[in-house]
């Protein structure tokens, strides 16, 4: 071929290839625009499922905004506040070839990063597989195959008073696989939590930051046995498993969206956008006909379990998984007197000779006793209450137990705690009427969350109190004034019994405001001045008598609201190991109280205090006596005290009647109230 002809042929080929690429590019762009136009015609961005996938909510002004805070969760720069732009950019991104930017090893193409968005858009717009970018999503496919989602359970970990992050309880999601050979504890659980370390943070600071969104929240995936070890064994929290009646495809949709949430962070709020709230979101993605997030201003984990139970047919089974502590308690309650005596002797000093050197006795179930002691050793070690030399004792007892046959039947475990869905509502309204030495009064109050000491313990930790954002106000008939009686930003009370199994410390923490009564010194000074005036200026006697009468009719005492922070520590005592209901508890504590008001020369004082509690619990009836004494006399002002006695009758889990009396320095009152919880 001549050189000139050869050159023309090469040019022709190059132009043809170039034209082919241009045509393909034009065709790809046209297809993107075609699908975007179809999405606009259908107003697909208004579809509830799209709103759920991007976690959009309406603002007060009616605008959309996503609860997700990280930009990596969106494909459009305006995606967080514009569902339409995010949808159109998603269509373009899914159909456009792209490669990882330099230095980003974990980069994924949007098709792989957002598989559920891609699936839904493809379904709604009938997009052909060949129209999407050609990418290999190996990481996602391997993850999804490992998970193999088929079913789901909501797991509730009971309230735990020794960690600020857990005083409301905790919920997580367990994904059940379709693998019949995989043991349940090897399945995976989904956890959403604040990305902070409560162990290295002051409890009050952690609680306040958690209330106001001071921490980011993230999703994480763990083998279920890790969570069982964390909650059941280390923290001794009972687990309640609520199996959801979801179809396999619903669970698979939820799992694909869970992968997408790996690119998202959310502001974490203890009372609303918490672990339970975002699990609501996942369940709504699985079944969009549910509207779980729309039903409560506050989202307390125990209350969310009730929401699942209220959905007809959603929960098909409930399973109880007792903690190590609960298992031990149950075993101790099944012991006879002789077995209990040996147990107590061993647990006093770790000397197992009381057990292994004992002559055979038909009244002693040696293997049962050995198992209980082994569990108790493990429990005390997890609590940090186990001497190092007990490690060797534990090994010796294991060896001894291995040579024994089982001489008892394990009939299973009844619940030491009760499932949260049977408990009262966490929010409350108080309505009261009463009388005092300052006159009659009408009162009202509110509690955002979650439980006070007079409430029924059903579904909650017995002998505990958790008050977040609660207050009581009163209108006194004589003074014609509305008075803030008390306010609690956070008030925690834990009366965990001290016994041979655990030397738990009881505690009380309160930050907020309370009330006290002071003598009105100004009136006394005015009286003395007028008495001298009556002697020195008899011509003004009529005016003086009028003023003295006016003062005698005025208030001699003034009730003021004090800002305060207080805490006490001590021990509580209750017979936990006997069979039957636990009716009585006594607690003694000591600590300090910081009080601030303008009545003090120093404005604020810090005083030592002592406190005691006595509780009598008879199911529907309950009595609580609390005593506090504050030694303010170290500052030259009178000591103060507060003695409160309350009786409660539960008409229903959410309806209570109360009769209460209180005595303080210069003040006494009695009141009757109705409490509604929701």
CATH architectural name of the largest domain: Beta Barrel
The residue-averaged pLDDT reads: 86
Cα end-to-end separation: 93 Å
Counting structural domains, the number is: 5
CATH C-level name of the largest domain: Mainly Beta
Q: Specify the biggest β-sheet.
A: 12 strands, antiparallel, barrel
SS-based class: alpha+beta
Regions with little confidence, pLDDT below 50 for 5+ residues:
3-26, 550-554
Task: Please work out how many helical segments DSSP would assign.
Answer: 18
Hey, roughly how much beta strand do the residues contain?
Answer: 25-35%
Q: Strand order, biggest sheet?
A: 10-11-12-13-14-15-16-17-18-19-20-21
Shape designation: globular
**Total strands:** 21
The portion of residues assigned to helices is 25-40%
What is the fold named in CATH at topology level of the largest domain? Porin
CATH superfamily of the largest domain: monomeric porin ompg
Rg calc: 34 Å
Tell me about this structure.
- With 678 residues, the chain is α+β, with helices and mostly antiparallel strands.
- The chain folds into five domains: 27-132, no CATH class; 143-321, Alpha-Beta Complex (endopeptidase fold (from Nostoc punctiforme)); 325-402, no CATH class; 423-520 and 559-677, Beta Barrel (Porin), CATH 2.40.160; 521-554, no CATH class.
- Helices cover 33% and strands 31% of the residues.
- It has 18 helices and 21 strands.
- The protein has helices spanning 3-42, 48-53, 83-94, 110-113, 115-125, 138-147, 203-211, 224-234, 248-260, 275-286, 301-310, 324-333, 337-349, 353-356, 366-382, 390-402, 521-536, 541-553, and strands at 56-58, 64-66, 149-157, 170-177, 188-194, 215-223, 239-244, 266-268, 315-321, 428-436, 439-451, 464-476, 481-494, 506-519, 557-573, 584-596, 604-618, 621-630, 640-652, 655-664, 667-677.
- A twelve-stranded antiparallel beta barrel has the order 10-11-12-13-14-15-16-17-18-19-20-21. It has a seven-stranded antiparallel beta sheet with strand order 8-6-5-4-3-7-9.
- Helix 1 (3-42) runs antiparallel to helix 3 and helix 9 crosses helix 10.
- It is globular, with a radius of gyration of 34 Å.
- The termini are far apart.
- Residues 3-26 and 550-554 have low confidence and may be disordered.
């Amino acid at each position: 071929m001549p050189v000139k002809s050869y050159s023309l042929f090469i040019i022709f080929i190059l132009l043809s290839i170039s034209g082919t690429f241009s045509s393909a590019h034009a065709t790809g762009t046209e297809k993107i625009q075609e699908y975007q136009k179809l999405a606009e015609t259908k107003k697909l961005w208004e579809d509830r499922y799209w709103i759920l996938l991007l976690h959009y909510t309406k603002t007060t002004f009616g605008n959309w905004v996503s609860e997700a805070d990280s930009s990596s969760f969106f494909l459009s720069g305006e995606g967080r506040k514009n569902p339409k732009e995010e949808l159109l950019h998603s269509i373009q991104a899914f159909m456009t070839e792209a490669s990882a930017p330099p230095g980003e090893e974990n980069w994924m193409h949007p098709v792989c990063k957002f598989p559920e968005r891609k699936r839904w858009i493809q379904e709604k717009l009938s997009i052909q597989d060949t129209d999407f970018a050609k990418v290999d999503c190996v990481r996602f496919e391997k993850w999804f195959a490992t998970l193999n989602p088929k079913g789901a359970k909501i797991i509730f970990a009971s309230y735990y008073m020794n960690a600020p992050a857990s005083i409301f309880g905790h919920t997580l999601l367990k994904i059940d696989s379709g693998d019949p050979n995989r043991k349940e504890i090897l399945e995976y659980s989904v956890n959403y939590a604040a990305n902070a370390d409560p162990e290295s943070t002051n409890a009050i600071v952690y609680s306040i930051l958690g209330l106001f969104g001071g921490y980011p929240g993230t999703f994480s995936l763990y083998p279920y046995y890790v969570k069982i070890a964390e909650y059941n064994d280390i923290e001794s929290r009972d687990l309640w498993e609520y199996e959801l009646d979801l179809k396999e495809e619903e669970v698979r949709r939820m799992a694909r969206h869970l992968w997408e949430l790996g690119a998202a962070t959310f502001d974490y709020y203890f009372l609303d956008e918490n672990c339970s709230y975002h699990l609501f979101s996942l369940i709504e993605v699985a079944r969009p006909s549910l509207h779980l997030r729309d039903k409560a201003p506050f989202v307390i984990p125990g209350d969310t379990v009730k929401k699942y139970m209220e959905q007809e047919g959603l929960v098909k089974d409930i399973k109880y998984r007792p903690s190590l502590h609960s298992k031990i308690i149950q075993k101790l309650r099944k012991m006879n007197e002789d077995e209990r005596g040996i147990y107590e002797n061993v647990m006093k000093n770790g000397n197992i000779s009381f057990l292994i050197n004992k002559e055979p006795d038909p009244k002693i179930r040696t293997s049962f006793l050995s198992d209980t002691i082994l569990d108790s050793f493990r429990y005390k070690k997890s609590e940090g209450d186990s001497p190092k030399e007990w490690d060797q004792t534990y090994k010796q007892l294991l060896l001894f137990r291995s040579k024994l046959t089982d001489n008892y039947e394990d009939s299973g475990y009844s619940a030491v705690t009760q499932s949260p869905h049977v408990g009262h509502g966490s929010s409350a309204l108080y309505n009261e009427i009463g009388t005092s030495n300052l006159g009659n009064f009408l009162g009202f109050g509110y509690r955002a969350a979650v439980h006070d000491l007079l409430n029924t313990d059903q579904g909650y930790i017995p002998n505990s109190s958790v008050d977040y954002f609660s207050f009581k106000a009163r209108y006194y008939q004589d003074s014609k004034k509305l008075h803030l009686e008390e306010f609690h930003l956070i008030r925690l009370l834990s009366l965990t019994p001290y016994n041979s199994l655990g030397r738990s410390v009881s505690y009380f923490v309160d930050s907020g405001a309370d009330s006290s009564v002071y003598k009105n010194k100004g009136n006394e000074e005015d009286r003395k001045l007028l008495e001298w005036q009556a002697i020195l200026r008899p011509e003004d006697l009529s005016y003086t008598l009028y003023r003295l009468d006016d003062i005698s009719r005025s208030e001699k005492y003034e009730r003021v609201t004090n800002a305060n922070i207080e805490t006490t520590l001590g021990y509580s005592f209750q017979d936990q190991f006997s069979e039957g209901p636990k009716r009585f508890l006594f607690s003694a504590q000591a600590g300090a109280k910081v009080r601030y008001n303008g009545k003090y020369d120093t404005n604020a004082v810090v005083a030592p205090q002592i406190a005691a509690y006595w509780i009598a619990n008879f199911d529907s009836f309950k009595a609580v006596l609390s005593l506090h004494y504050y030694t303010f006399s170290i500052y030259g002002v009178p000591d103060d005290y507060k003695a409160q006695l309350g009786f409660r009758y539960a008409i229903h889990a959410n309806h209570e009647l109360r009769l209460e009396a209180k005595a303080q320095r210069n003040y006494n009152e009695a009141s009757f109230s109705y409490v509604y919880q929701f």
